[in-house]
C-alpha cells in the first residue's frame, strides 16, 4: 500500500478529528466557532478583571452544553465523546469557562440526575440545563481536600427537617450559584443535600487575589444552622461513593479540556515563531525552535488520542475510575509542559494577555490540583496496579 506524500495538517497532525462521528465533529466545530466569536475577543479582559459574565450561563444553555451528557429533563443526551470534545473546545478558550460547564453539568446536575428523586429532577434539571439556575458543588473543606472522608460539615435531623453546619472551600460558581449540592456527615453516613442558596444561614464569600482561573468564580461556602426540608436530601445515595462518582464525571471532562489548553498554546507558539523574525529569518527556521514545536505537537496529539480512547471506553460502559485518573494525570501534565514551553518561546510577549499562553499556563496550575491532585491520581494508579492502597 502506498504512503501519502501529502503534508499533514500541523494543527491536527494525526487527523484525530477524522476519528469523530459527523455529529461529534459538528459539535466540535459549533463550540469552536462560539469560542472564537464570543470568548476569545473578551476572555483576556475577564481574566485581568477577575470576572465571569453571568450571561454566559444562558448562552451555554442555548448551545445545549449544560448537562449535555445527561438524558431527559431538557438535557441533550449526547455521548461521552461529544461532551469531552465540547470541553476540549471550551478549554481552548479558557479553563475557567470549561470549569463552569463541568461544574454545572457533572457536579451539580449529575448528582440530581443520578441520585435525586423524580420531583427533584423535574424541579431543578430543566432550569439548570437552560442556564437559568446556576449550581455549585460543596465537597472540599479548608481541612479536607484530598481526604474527603475528613469532612467536618454535619447534617442533623430536626423533626422532618435537616440542619447543616460547616464550611466548604474552593467552590467553583459558589458566589453566583442559585443552588448548591452540599455533602455532609449524617448519622447514617455522608449525604448529599440540594440547598437553595437564599436559605437563611447560607453565605458564599468570593475568593479574591487568585492568579489562576480568574475568569471563573471561586468561593467559600459557610453553612450556619442552614435548615432545609426533608425532601432536600438526595435519596439515592449514602456514603462517599456519591460525591466521588460526581468527581469522576468532572475529571473526564478535564482530561479532554486539558488538550484544548495545550492545543491553544502550541498553535500560539507555532503562529508566533512563523511570523517573528530574528537574525534575518523566522524563529521557526531555527533548529531549537523546530525541536520544541515537534515535541509540543507530539504531546498535544498523543493527549488527544488518549482522551478520545477513554471517551470511547466510557461510551461502551467500560471506563474505570483508575483509567480516568490516568487521563487526568497525564493530559494535564502534558498540557502544563506545552504551556510552559510556549511561554518561553514567546519571550517577553509570553507574559502578556495579548497572547493566550500565560493565561493558560496559570489556569493549568489549578487544573493540575483540582478534581484530585496529581499525587492523588498517582496513588489511584498505584493501587490499581498493585492492589495495595497507599493513601495512609
Automatic annotation (TrEMBL):
Pfam families: Acyl-CoA_dh_1, Acyl-CoA_dh_M, Acyl-CoA_dh_N
Domain (Acyl-CoA dehydrogenase/oxidase N-terminal): residue spans on this chain: 21-132
Catalytic activities: glutaryl-CoA + oxidized [electron-transfer flavoprotein] + 2 H(+) = (2E)-butenoyl-CoA + reduced [electron-transfer flavoprotein] + CO2
EC main group: oxidoreductase
Reported cofactor(s): FAD
Database matches in Gene3D superfamilies: Acyl-CoA dehydrogenase/oxidase, N-terminal domain, Butyryl-CoA Dehydrogenase, subunit A, domain 2, Butyryl-CoA Dehydrogenase, subunit A, domain 3
Species whose genome carries this gene: Thermobispora bispora (strain ATCC 19993 / DSM 43833 / CBS 139.67 / JCM 10125 / KCTC 9307 / NBRC 14880 / R51)
Protein name: glutaryl-CoA dehydrogenase (ETF)
